[in-house]
Specification:
With 405 residues, this protein is an alpha/beta fold. It contains 18 helices and 13 strands. The chain has a six-stranded parallel β-sheet, with helices on both faces. Strands 9-10-11 form a three-stranded antiparallel β-sheet, covered by helices on one side.
Length: 405
């Protein structure tokens, strides 16, 4: 049994934010039916590409990484027959997820208000840049992840001190929105369980990033200070950053005065423990430049591996600066099944990230490959909607359904 057994999701999403959401729901056991246009999800054309075996075509690693555990149907929603298929699927579903501009679904005839007429208790989740319920001039604005990172203020506090604005190294605007959409959907499902009522889950990428700005908002509202990028340093705790070593970097998050004392002992600078400029966290933050200068001199005297041995023995929090190859090969990350192999048609075994949901009874799992375009057309129509094989063939002839590819 899986946590979301018997939950059926109609996935009208593309590229990243909503596909990430529906992937998490699928990992937890939901039946996710991905509705793709005849051309497929845009991300099927995004690199990097897996090299195919002798009988297959190249496949997008981007798409594969976001669409495991799902079923793909390729339906032409510009046809009335295609729309009728979607209506029938919605009638038997629990959740609909989409991440188009707010007017797109309305033009197709599948806005929340219209879908409610098909299934009154549906959970309908929308993800877009600025939200469906937004000022008119914002609701229809196009928005990619970088727009959300810039508009939310996140880019203004990211990067080296005094440097240009920097994009976070992953598409965090999309991914945070995907996570928050999943939480919203699960909350709405639980509300429906108690009341029988469906609802619209309206997720904004910008909202999501504003909500995780942590203390940046309070630093401005309390102190009137406009936060700026600090590199790896923390604005309110010190030393809480990376330091260059003899050969690389090491991360030292020293989060309280007790750890400060242990840290000074570990690096052989006991005289700094009660130094009048550094003896408590507030003083260390006020005198951060001098503190960092002194510590950098010490940290550069040993290699990262030497510091790791010292900090490990001292019980201090630390981390080497792992690159992606280090992460993929890391013993504990692999023990936690965060890099998994899946058998992908025409490719053989490929590696994808695992599910982070480690529930003791119903954990998230990577069970099936990312589907080929239209791979489940016949299965979905014949098994879920009782179409005959003859009707399916007619839909293919009329270009309502794609042949799987």
């Amino acid at each position: 049994m899986k946590a979301l057994d018997d939950i059926r999701v109609i996935d009208l999403s593309h590229v990243l934010a909503a596909p990430f959401c529906t992937m998490m729901l699928a990992d937890m056991g939901a039946e996710v039916i991905k509705i793709e246009p005849p051309s497929g999800d845009d991300s099927r054309e995004f690199g990097p590409f897996f090299e195919p075996d002798e009988k297959g075509d190249e496949q997008s690693g981007y798409f594969v990484s976001l669409n495991r555990n799902k079923k793909s149907t390729s339906i032409n929603l510009k046809t009335e027959e295609g729309k009728e298929i979607l209506r029938k699927l919605i009638a038997g579903a629990d959740v609909v997820v989409e991440n188009f501009r707010p007017n797109t679904m309305k033009k197709l005839g599948f806005s929340y208000e219209e879908i409610k007429e098909i299934k009154s208790d549906i959970i309908y989740c929308s993800i877009c840049g600025f939200g469906h319920d937004a000022l008119p001039e914002y609701a229809t604005k196009p928005a990619y992840d970088m727009v959300a990172q810039a508009y939310s203020g996140l880019m203004s506090i990211t990067g080296p001190k005094g440097g240009p604005p920097c994009r976070v190294g992953t598409s965090v605007g999309d991914i945070v929105a995907g996570h928050q959409a999943a939480i919203g959907i699960l909350s709405a499902l639980w509300h429906r369980e108690k009341t029988g009522e469906g609802q619209h889950v309206d997720i904004s990428m910008v909202d999501g990033l504003v909500s995780i700005l942590e203390n940046a908002i309070s630093r401005y509202t309390i102190k009137g200070e406009v936060p700026e990028p600090l590199g790896t340093a923390h604005p309110n705790i010190a030393p809480f950053q990376s330091f260059p070593t003899k050969d690389d970097y090491i991360i030292t998050p020293i989060g309280n005065d007790g750890l400060w004392e242990k840290f000074c002992e570990a690096i052989g600078k006991e005289e700094l423990v009660d130094h009048p400029k550094f003896k408590d966290n507030r003083l260390r933050c006020e005198n951060l430049d001098e503190l960092v200068s002194r510590l950098e001199e010490v940290m550069k005297t040993k290699t990262t591996e030497e510091w790791i041995e010292i900090f490990e023995e001292s019980g201090l929090p630390y981390s080497p600066l792992n690159r992606i190859d280090d992460v993929v090969d890391d013993d504990n990350i692999n023990y936690r099944n965060m890099i998994e192999e899946v058998e992908q048609p025409d490719l053989g075994k490929v590696e994808v990230t695992g599910s982070p949901f480690k529930l003791s009874k119903t954990p998230g799992e990577v069970e099936t490959h990312a589907p080929k375009l239209g791979e489940h057309n016949e299965e979905v129509l014949t098994e879920l909607l009782d179409y005959s094989q003859q009707e399916v063939e007619k839909l293919k002839e009329n270009e309502v359904l794609n042949e799987p590819k």
